[in-house]
Amino acid sequence: MDDLISEFIAECREMLEALGGEIVAWEASPDDRARLDSIFRFVHTVKGNCGFFDFPRLEALSHAAEDALAEVRAGRRHADGPLVSAVLAIIDRIAEMIAALDAGEEFPAGDDSSLIQALQQGAEVPAAPVAATVGEAQSKAAAPRTIRLSVELLDRLMSGVSDMVLARNELARRLRETTGDVAIDGAFERLSSIIAEMRDAITRTRMQRIENLFVALPRMVRDLSAELGKQVLVDIEGGDVELDREMIEMIRDPLTHIIRNAVDHGIELPAERLKAGKREIGILSVSARQSGNQILIDIQDDGRGINGKKLVEKAISAGVIEKSDASDLSPREQLALIFEAGLSTAKEVTAISGRGVGMDVVRSNIERIGGIVEVDSGVGEGTRMTLRVPLTLTIIPALTVSVAGQSFAIPRSAIDEIVRANGESVSVEKVGGAGVATIRGRRVPEIALSDVLGLESGTPAQDRSLVVLRPAGGDVYALAVDRIHDHEELVVKPAAPAVMATGLYAGTTLADDGSPILLFDPAGIAQVGGIKLETHERGGRIAEAPVAAPLNETPVLLFRGLDGARRVLRLAIVDRIEEVPSAAIRSGAGQLRVQLGEAILPLAGVNGKLPDEKVRLFRLNDGHREIGYAFREVLDLSIVGKDVIPAASPGEISGVSLVSGEPAEIVDPHWLFANFASSAISSAEQLVCRLPADDPWMQNMLRPIVEAAGYRVVSDNEDVDADLAIVSAASKDESAAARTIRLRAEPDPASAKDESIYRYDRAALLMALKTASGGKR
Amino acid sequence: MSELLLIVVIAGERVALPAAAVESVVELDTLIPVPRAAPHVAGLSALRSRVLTVIDCMRSLELGATDCSDGIREAAVVELDGHHYALIVDLVEDVVEALSEPASVRGAMGQGWERVSKGMVETEEGPILMIDIAALVGGIERQAA
Lengths: 777, 145
Hints:
Chain A is of the alpha/beta class. Helix content of chain A is 36%, strand content 29%. The longest helix of chain A has 27 residues, at 2-28. Chain A starts with a helix and ends with a helix. In chain A, strands 1-3-5-6-8-7 form a 6-stranded mixed β-sheet. In chain A, strands 11-15-16-14-13-12 form a 6-stranded mixed β-sheet. Chain B is α+β, with helices and mostly antiparallel strands. Helices cover 15% and strands 48% of the residues of chain B. Chain B has a 5-stranded mixed β-sheet. In chain B, a hairpin with a 2-residue loop joins strand 1 and strand 2. The longest helix of chain B is centred in the last third of the chain and has 12 residues, at 133-144. Chain B starts with a strand and ends with a helix. Chains A and B meet through helix 6, helix 17, strand 18 and strand 19 of A and strand 4, strand 5 and helix 3 of B.
């Protein structure tokens, strides 16, 4: 019996959850039969089960609601506001009773007759305001078939699979030690891939659609706006985005809070809205989307917006900021003040949003799970809050580093870049005992990880690597580590309190060989290392604040060319800097070319003697093609103003300007690409020619000619659309290609109709190739 | 009264841990130190796919340090607030039955023992000190807090 009851309770809860959005949607369009049916089904199920379990009050309530809804279904009654409110009230009461049942308590005695009375036609109930969902909620397809599982069971599965991975790794080690038997290796490979697949699947079971979070919102907004006498339309999008189960729980409260704020403080009363020239009904849109390994949740209202100036005044009077600092704040920073503790713009404290404790709690909650809150607002136009949260709590992409022989992990999200301490344009100095690293002209505080941890590092300072970190809510600093190892996806678990008490670690994880690794908390390291983050804190918190560089100032890279001249290149076209042995630079096909891994790029900038051993070069990219540009050394990052003296004639140098106080030549990227990369056509626009793979003559003799004519050669079994196919005259098969050239082995044509070409007739062959390409273009 | 006790030796002294709280007895080989952690945290170790926080009981009791340099150490694995700990002990002896409720020890114990004591229990092998695992794991700091 107990089992049956708990099954009944679980079923009811699930239906109640799903119903939250349905009811409000039904209110908006009372004629929607599908919604009416699902609500009817709920009360009907409750009624049926109650009779069986002997819960008379539940039965009476659900019975009354069922009767009223049956009338509507039969078309004898119209679903008006009072009826909806009455049905809602009954469903609420049912939910309360079920919650009490679930907790094993006696539901306090009370009278339900007033609720049942309210269902009667013509009952006196104040009209309820309209709140409705539009968008996805209405077109929601039937939910996929599901079963209920306890999270505990899933966690057990998860740890079982983790154990399996470790056992596999152990087995792999043993297998490597013994002699390699191909059959065993094959079987092991198969086992490995199955385990990997299984780990993926289990990881996915932890994911949940964010819909579960959104489904309660329409109802909440409806009740809230009713209470406040406002009219709000909720627009929900992106409910199918998946998020870690735990993460959904973590953002539930912050999201609720933001929405309450938006309805309470953001959206105005209908009369005010009309006065401001807006529609009476306010729009609150909530959307979720995935961007990389982050989930972005936008909450946007079209209400009165946040007044940044008022916020600043408030902040000054509350002592949050100094008056002298206030004038330096950018509009974004002004708005970000909303997240400071003890600040609320509402004049009166309301029951809904409470007093100024709120947004600071929202921010700290989101930051605790590695997320960011941003705010954007225009007075009179509305407010947009964006929550950026990582996809999952448990699997974190991390960089493993080591110091004094011990490995640690650093969350990758906090890493800005990694440089060598002895690399070019990097220097590390000591200023009054404190480390200062200068990286391409930018000074950042530097600390050695070995000092923070109190370990003896055997690596001399100049051989270390600097990891430039930007902790959540802080400014950058450089952390010197002995060695950088690898990027890994780590399953992170919370560490014991005694370990967390150090403030340095965010958790523990297991490496592939099964040994534990500590994951650092970048903000904690900064704190323990004594780095002051406060000074730039406010600015640093604003993620991706676009640095609005004036349009006439272009960021450039100042460098010294091989001939010793000071030159600048626009930073945007420099992909990266490479160092190659001078042997990788060769003259080929009338041009200097450099080999970079698999690619061969045209090389520019060689206007002086090439260095003997290593050549440094910029990899330039115009979006389609790449070229290399050799140089001697990078001097600085700088800005070129508008005072450019243009060159007399077009060439590699487009002009001269003052950069960092001295004249420098400005390299013209357009000229570079026009002159160096014109022949290096990228594969996207290349014509494709199909050659039979099994014909040695075609492959050995013909292929070079075809390639020289600008074609990309594919074999006849590759599944590519070919612009041209070359086959021998004897071949019967009609290749799927726009054009076909037939080649014959004999000088004379077999007949007058024969349009094939003698295979050593170079002129005719080239002409045919050219015609084919001309026909295409 | 039939609570089972696990008799272990810490710092040369035979003491009892409530057997129900001990998940298993393991031999630790690798130990990953946790820099900057409290001194009684000897490091981390892995038991299957779980991370164990290894507690040096001698340090927790302020009775010196266990010499972990010689490799394999015996440890009792316990769970506390969802975290797993391995308590390094000199030796794990036996499981015995408690014959009485813990009674307070009226004689003067060492300060460290005083802190982790849950009282004295009678067993067939005579009276033995019962250890409060949470206090042992908490170490010196928690006492101060």
